[in-house]
Amino acid sequence: MKYTAKSPQATTALGTALAQVLEPGDVISLEGDLGAGKTQFVKGIGIGFGIDPDQITSPTFTLINQYEGKFPIYHFDVYRIEPQELEDLGYEEYFYGSGICLVEWGNIVRDYLPEEYLQIMINKTADDQREFTFTAFGERYQRLISELKVVVRA
Ligand SMILES: Nc1ncnc2c1ncn2[C@@H]1O[C@H](COP(=O)(O)OP(=O)(O)OP(=O)(O)O)[C@@H](O)[C@H]1O
Ligand SMILES: [Mg+2]
């Protein structure tokens, strides 16, 4: 599924729409260059779960932020991570747990992600415009994308 967001607000709104169809245990890999809008999108998801978006920042140095919404939300930024650090963090507890994992730069740790996850690629197509490509790995995420289509077209 593709979606074009023509402003940061449109990206936030897309994140909020996605939050409506997320379930505990979901894992999302957010992929795209520096400044693509990964964190902006996570803020939108947070809003959907009643989290103050000002609390949400890229955990570039802390690796992981945790927010308490309807479900626990684990927000990773693995841009600078070494595989050993991921092991030390006990990543399995998160990736195979019952919270929702949002992983900025998930492509870097692809080998550690569960077999099934939702990939969201964000490409900058103009200064204020971003193209989103949603790809499902596994049946759960095919269903999620179908549900999201209904939400964004509603
Ligand atoms: N349509 C858009 N969607 C999202 N962000 C946009 C859009 N247009 C402009 N921007 C701007 O792009 C920037 C996106 O920054 P953001 O921190 O979300 O990127 P990021 O992908 O998380 O980067 P990093 O890899 O450094 O963590 C913000 O300054 C935002 O205002
Ligand atoms: Mg970020």
The helix-and-strand class reads alpha/beta
Distinct bound molecules: adenosine-5'-triphosphate, magnesium ion
Determine the strand fraction and express it as a percent band: 25-35%
The CATH topology label is Rossmann fold
Cα(first) to Cα(last) distance is: 16 Å
Summarize the helix and strand pattern as letters.
EHEHEEHHEEEH
**Integer-rounded radius of gyration:** 14 Å
Describe the 3D structure:
The structure is a single chain. With 154 residues, the chain is α/β, with parallel strands linked by helices. The protein has a single domain (13-153), classed as Rossmann fold (3-Layer(aba) Sandwich), CATH 3.40.50. Helices cover 32% and strands 29% of the residues. It is built from five helices and seven strands; from the N terminus they run βαβαββααβββα. It has a seven-stranded mixed beta sheet with strand order 1-7-6-2-5-4-3. α1 crosses α2 (38-48). The chain binds adenosine-5'-triphosphate and magnesium ion.
